[in-house]
Model the fold of this input.
Amino acid sequence: MTQSNKDPVVVVLQMTGGNDYLNTVIPYSNPLYRDNRPVVGVPEGRVLPIDDKIAFHPEMGPIKSLYDQGNVAVIHGVGYANSPRSHFRSMDIWHTCEPDKLGTEGWLGRATREIDPNKENVLTTVSFGPSLFRALALPGVPVACVDDLDNYGLLPGITESQQRSRILDRFARLYSPVMGSSAVMDYMGQTGLDTLEGADILKEAPRKYSSTVEYPDTTIAAKLKGISQIHQAGFGTRILYCDHGSFDSHSNQTGMHDKLWKDVSEAVECFFDDLREHDMSDNVVMLLFTEFGRRTHDNGSGTDHGAGGAAFVIGDPVKGGQYSEMPSLEAKDLEQGDVVPNHDFRGIYSVLLEDWMGLDAKPLVGGSFEKLPFLG
Done:
């Protein structure tokens, strides 16, 4: 339940490309991990143990610090049955909660409609990045989109209309093949540029912002700093969404994965330090997810597309620890060489929607799913 009288806020950080579960939340004491990771396995001397079985990736020190404070929930074995192991289709399932058919409504678009049914605040939901995330898209529901908060409307040659057009054009190119051009045009026709009008107000956020926290010079840090600025500006924003990647580590995984987690961990730590400095962290919960984990056995340089993965929920209101169970690495228990998901991702959404945001989750995620007690 919420820990303050402030409106609860959800921040989503999408780790695009399929983050490697087993090299993120590492079963370091399991000999099968070493057997399956002769090339990309993280040496035992480098891991960051959180108990006698599980460790974090060595570049996750800042997140481990948050974990040690009791503010990180690690959710094991996240996914859904019969993973297609396709980036686009899997992400589509996560965005629409429709594993058996092509969905047309984003789960957070539905949530936005419930939070603000009369469209009184065009900044209820903010999509942060170069594209509008399908999780947020629902015809008739406004979502403010901004590509670069610091440079929005400021850089010579970049205007609000150009940024809007680029975001909408990318949305159309991404989703027309799956949704059909008529569905995409229906969305754009009903919401169109009105969907993005809140971005005009968003450029005020950096002007209102002051902090002693120094964010790293990375793309994900810039996004989370922008999200912090929006939250601190008091616009009434309830849902904020961004992404980072690509985590698609088919080759040269070791250095690539190290850099990704270094950047994400440092940015997340700065984000929460920033909010805490301004006494604005008590009503914020962050979800980190990826569309699928990766193959149990490495391919000699990296890891291929898998199924079960890990998700993280971070924030002051979070009841930290490990939830669900690390799936078996026994060969007989794998499917197509992958660990099998044992917790439906829609259960995580249900906790965030119902126990945090105070909404009825069932119509938003398409049913009832096991809810884990990771919120205090």
